[in-house]
Specification:
It is built from 16 helices and 19 strands. By secondary structure, it is an alpha+beta fold. It has 3 domains: 214 residues, 3-Layer(bba) Sandwich (FAD/NAD(P)-binding domain), CATH 3.50.50.60; 101 residues, D-Amino Acid Oxidase, Chain A, domain 2 (2-Layer Sandwich), CATH 3.30.9.90; 55 residues, no CATH class. The strands form 3 sheets. Strands 3, 4, 5, 6, 11, 12, 13, 14 and 15 form a 9-stranded mixed sheet that branches.
C-alpha cells in the first residue's frame, strides 16, 4: 500500500460527510474532508428543515449551537385546485413541538465542516474528485486530476448522483422514477414582515407542504420560513412533465402566483434560484451493498433520504448515516459491511427508512396529484357554499356523492388507494 496521506478521506462536505469527519476526528483519526464547491454548502440548494436529534447524537449539545433560522412551531399542509385551496394548519403548543429547525445549507454546511475542522479534520474545498485509487478490490485513495491522495478508508458522501459509488459498482446512475427534480427560490423579506404574515415570533417559524401544484404530475410544493427570507420550491417527477406540458420552473412560477402563496411573498426580493436532483425511492434506494474493502457510501449517495409527502427527511438521516460510517470504520475487524449495517441500525437510520418502506408505491399513484385534490376541493365548495337566492342547504352525503360521480375516481380506486396508504403507513 502507498504511503498514507490520512487515515480517512471523505468526499463531500454535506451533512453526512461532515458528520463522519467530526466523529472520526473526535476519536483521533486523521481525516481529510474534500468538497468540490468553493466552500461547503455552496453547491446545495436547500433552505429546508432539519430534525435536530441527529446533531445531539453526533455530539451532545451540538443542536443548541446550530445556525438555526427559526424553530418550527407551525405545521401546514394545503391542497390546491386551480386558485382554490384547503388547509390543515396545526399551531403546536411548546410541549408538543418536535425539535426541528429551518436552516440554509449555505450556512449550516460551513458551520458543520468548521466543527469537524476544530476537532482536527482537514477541510479542503475547491477539489473535484475524479475517481478512486484501486488495488484489486480494495480502495486505497482518490484521484483528483493528476494527483492522488491515499488513505486506509474512503467515504463517498458526494450526493444523489454519486460518481464514486457508481464507479465502485455499488450504485448506478439515477434512473427514471428514482429521483425527482427540485427547484427552489429564496425570497428576502424583513423579519417583522415574516412574523406578521405567519403569526409567529422571531424565534418561531412555519413548515408548509402543498399538494396539487404540479398539474397532476407526481410531486408537491414546500415553503419554509427563515429569519429574513422564505424558501419556496417544487419537487416533481421529471418523467411526468411531458404529459402535463410544464417545466419545473413554470410550475414554480405558477405556485408563486397562487392566491395561497402570493400574499406570503408579496414585496419580497428574489435572492436565489437553484435546482437539484432529489431521491424519491425511499428504502429501495439503499443499495444491497454499501461497502468495499476500504470504501463506504453515506448520505444521499447511499439512498438515505425520505419523502413521505407530509414530511421530508433528508438532512437528519444523512447525519445519522455519516455517524454510522464513522462508527463502522472504528469497529472494522474485517467485516466492514457488517459493521456499517450494525451501526446504521444502532443510530436509528435503518429503522427510519424501513418504517416507510411501503409508502413509495402509494406516492407513485398519479391520482394523488390531480384527481384527489379536485375531489376534495369540490366537496369543500359544496359544503361551505350558500345559495343566492337562499335555499335549504344540501346535506353533506349527497354533496359528496354528486362530486364523486363527476370525478374520474371510482370506488375501486378508493379501496385500492386506501389499502396502499394503510400498508405504507
Amino acid at each position: 500500500m502507498a504511503q498514507m496521506d490520512a487515515d480517512v478521506i471523505i468526499v463531500g462536505a454535506g451533512p453526512a460527510g461532515a458528520a463522519c469527519a467530526l466523529r472520526l476526528a473526535q476519536t483521533g483519526r486523521s481525516v481529510i474532508l474534500l468538497e468540490r464547491g468553493e466552500t461547503p454548502g455552496s453547491k446545495n440548494v436547500t433552505g429546508g428543515r432539519l430534525y435536530t436529534a441527529a446533531l445531539d447524537m453526533l455530539s451532545p449539545g451540538l443542536a443548541a449551537e446550530a445556525p438555526a433560522e427559526r424553530h418550527v412551531t407551525s405545521e401546514r399542509i394545503s391542497i390546491l385546485d386551480g386558485e382554490a385551496h384547503a388547509d390543515i394548519h396545526v399551531g403546536l403548543a411548546p410541549c408538543d413541538r418536535s425539535d426541528s429547525i429551518t436552516v440554509n445549507r449555505s450556512t449550516l454546511d460551513p458551520w458543520l465542516a468548521g466543527c469537524a475542522e476544530e476537532a482536527g479534520a482537514m477541510v479542503v474545498p475547491g477539489m473535484t474528485v475524479d475517481g478512486l485509487v484501486m488495488n484489486g478490490n480494495r480502495v486505497e485513495g482518490i484521484r483528483a486530476g493528476e494527483d492522488e491522495l491515499h488513505a486506509e478508508y474512503v467515504v463517498a458522501a458526494d450526493g444523489v448522483n454519486s460518481l464514486l459509488a457508481a464507479s465502485a459498482g455499488l450504485t448506478h446512475r439515477p434512473r427514471p422514477g428514482e429521483v425527482a427534480t427540485g427547484v427552489k427560490v429564496t425570497v428576502g423579506l424583513p423579519e417583522h414582515t415574516i412574523n406578521e404574515r405567519f403569526a409567529v415570533s422571531s424565534a418561531e417559524g412555519a413548515a408548509h407542504l402543498m399538494l396539487g401544484c404540479t398539474n397532476g404530475a407526481r410531486g408537491g410544493g414546500f415553503l419554509y420560513t427563515n429569519r429574513e427570507s422564505l424558501s419556496i420550491g417544487i419537487v416533481v417527477d421529471p418523467t411526468k412533465l411531458p404529459a402535463v406540458r410544464s417545466t419545473p420552473r413554470e410550475l414554480l412560477e405558477s405556485l408563486l402566483r397562487h392566491p395561497l402563496v402570493e400574499p406570503f411573498v408579496r414585496g419580497g426580493e428574489l435572492r436565489e434560484y437553484s435546482a437539484h436532483l432529489v431521491r424519491e425511492d425511499g428504502r429501495s434506494g439503499i443499495p444491497p451493498q454499501l461497502t468495499l474493502p476500504g470504501f463506504l457510501v453515506a448520505g444521499e449517495a447511499a439512498g438515505f433520504c425520505l419523502n413521505l409527502g407530509y414530511t421530508i427527511r433528508g438532512m437528519d438521516v444523512a447525519l445519522l448515516s455519516g455517524i454510522a460510517a464513522a462508527e463502522a470504520i472504528g469497529a472494522d475487524a474485517g467485516d466492514l459491511e457488517g459493521s456499517y449495517r450494525t451501526a446504521l441500525a444502532a443510530c436509528g437510520a435503518t429503522g427510519i427508512m424501513d418504517a416507510a418502506s411501503g409508502y413509495g408505491p402509494f406516492l407513485e399513484k398519479s391520482r394523488l396529484y390531480g384527481d384527489y385534490p379536485k375531489l376534495a376541493m369540490g366537496i369543500a365548495r359544496d359544503v361551505f357554499a350558500v345559495a343566492n337566492p337562499p335555499q335549504a342547504p344540501d346535506r353533506i352525503v349527497p354533496s359528496v356523492r354528486r362530486e364523486f360521480r363527476s370525478s374520474p375516481l371510482r370506488i375501486r380506486d378508493l379501496v385500492s388507494d386506501a389499502r396502499a396508504a394503510v400498508k405504507g403507513l
